[in-house]
Design goal:
The complex is a heterodimer of chains A (192) and B (180). By secondary structure, chain A is mostly helical. Chain A contains eight helices and no strands. Chain A is globular and about 55 Å long. Among the domains of chain B are: 57 residues, no CATH class; 65 residues, no CATH class. A two-stranded antiparallel sheet of chain B has the order 1-2. The chains are: A mainly alpha (192), B mainly alpha (180). The structure holds zinc ion (ZN).
């Protein structure tokens, strides 16, 4: 196998506690750092839930505004990330509700999942291949999709994934492995 | 030992390896013993080596949050007159109150309880025209958390409906393209 790539989230293993304490005291720098640490996982989680990158981006913003605006309510019974993902889930529900309401009045089509497969991180793989993998991932059942994403892209433990997707730790592990197996079936025709 | 290996496996090394590989390919295993064990295993296991290569391929497709998100959030926090909640939940499943914020693109939550219920009925009716099953689920799930007058404090917080009672399956069905 090749050497492990550089950790995409070098801060993730550092505890959030000190930053949360500072953020609760109104430290804007600490709030910004918390956003930088966790915006990726929240965004990807919401793309998985909502199936729409633009809506996920808006909802990611809502999630952080709501979380940091109420950070006094976080006392550390769970990890800050788990708390954020719970808020993100609720914000996703609100976003879905608003979309339904908009649909009720305008009858417009739900926007297709956009392929934003551009950016420096995709140089090595190629835009078409990135789009193909994302399409396969997006086609998985929701809990498989989010288990794969949270495990592979964000390094969560299966226990934390279970809490995020409202399942047990064991179910999160099974969903991850089923998701990977399905992705192999979908993508293996081109080999590795 | 990491959480993943402390409660580890007694059986085939492959089971442990495939659990750890997604962490390894992204470089987030902090325990050097785990890394050494995994690399040794992968060096002699064709199956896990193929898995590692596949995971690296998947990892390259990772989506990133849009640039400027932190600045946008901070600007909104600066602008917002934040109303701190009177009761502040802490459990992961409980949701903090919504601060008072400028309206967003889909409009804020300046919707009365009555209006929300009327909308729910309308949406439910519309939905049922397309799918009776989804309509029933949606309508019953929505009304479940709001049809008891004495329960308003529980499902309306700072003007925002608490939507946790709506099952994910229903919400996901609402935005699945095929469902439209
Ligand atoms: Zn193996």
């Amino acid at each position: 196998m090749t050497a492990p790539m550089q950790n995409p989230d070098p801060e993730e293993d550092r505890p959030d506690g000190p930053l949360v304490q500072r953020a609760r005291a109104g430290d804007r720098g600490a709030m910004g750092e918390l956003i930088n640490r966790h915006q990726g996982v929240v965004y990807r989680f919401l793309v998985g839930l909502l199936g729409d990158e633009e809506l996920a981006a808006d909802t990611t913003q809502e999630t952080f505004v709501r979380a940091l605006g109420n950070i006094a309510g976080f006392r550390g019974d769970s990890t800050f990330r788990t708390w954020l993902l719970a808020i993100a889930r609720n914000e996703a529900r609100g976003a879905m509700r608003r979309r339904v309401r908009r649909r009720e009045f305008t009858l417009d089509d739900a926007p297709p999942l956009q392929d934003q497969a551009a950016g420096p991180e995709h140089v090595t793989l190629g835009r078409a291949e990135v789009g193909r993998i994302r399409t396969a991932l997006d086609s998985l059942p929701p809990k498989q999709k989010m288990s794969v994403s949270l495990r592979l892209f964000d390094g969560l433990s299966f226990r934390e994934i279970g809490r995020a997707i409202d399942s047990s730790e064991g179910a999160a592990r099974v969903n991850y492995h089923h998701g990977i197996r399905r992705l192999r079936e979908l993508l293996d025709d081109r080999g590795n | 030992m990491t959480e993943e290996t402390r409660h580890g496996w007694n059986g085939s090394g492959c089971a442990r390896a495939v659990d750890l590989l997604p962490l390894h390919v992204r470089g987030s295993i902090s325990d050097a013993c785990d890394v050494l064990w995994l690399e040794e295993h992968v060096s002699r296991c064709d199956s896990c080596r193929a898995e590692a290569v596949f995971l690296e391929r998947l990892l390259s497709s990772r989506r990133e949050a849009p640039a400027g998100l932190a600045a946008a959030v901070m600007a909104r926090l600066e602008d917002a007159t934040v109303s701190m909640p009177s009761r502040v939940p802490d459990a992961p499943g409980s949701i903090p109150n919504r601060p008072h914020l400028p309206p967003r693109r889909f409009g804020g939550w300046a919707v009365s309880v009555a209006a929300v219920l009327v909308l729910a009925l309308g949406i439910g009716t519309f939905w049922m025209a397309e799918s009776n099953v989804a309509g029933d689920l949606f309508l019953s799930a929505f009304l479940e958390d709001g049809d008891e007058p004495g329960n308003q404090d529980e499902w309306m917080v700072a003007g925002a409906p608490v939507l946790d009672a709506l099952p994910d399956e229903v919400l996901l069905a609402l935005v699945t393209e095929g469902a439209w």
